[in-house]
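Fig. S4 source data, part A: sequence.
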Amino acid sequence: MCRRQIARICEKAAKAAGIGKRVTPHTLRHCFATHLLEAGTDIRILQRLLGHSGLNITARYLHVAENYLDARKTPLELHGQDVDQNG
């Protein structure tokens, strides 16, 4: 398959799904990376899945998930609530 065929498949699938925005193979790759980060996937695993040679390239995806990640509590914060209550 050539790039254009894959792009057409994405366009056709987006139209069939009722998605009004432009969908490209890169859009799918970007969403894949963002959702994995939001699900807590380690960035080094994501780096390998995306085939990036350096972590600095993968780190570009972090800015997209920042708001989501900032809203999550760390395990220490969650357990800290129990510690404060029990002394």
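Fig. S4 source data, part B ends here. The helical segments are 3-16, 25-38, 43-50, 55-58, 62-71, 75-86.
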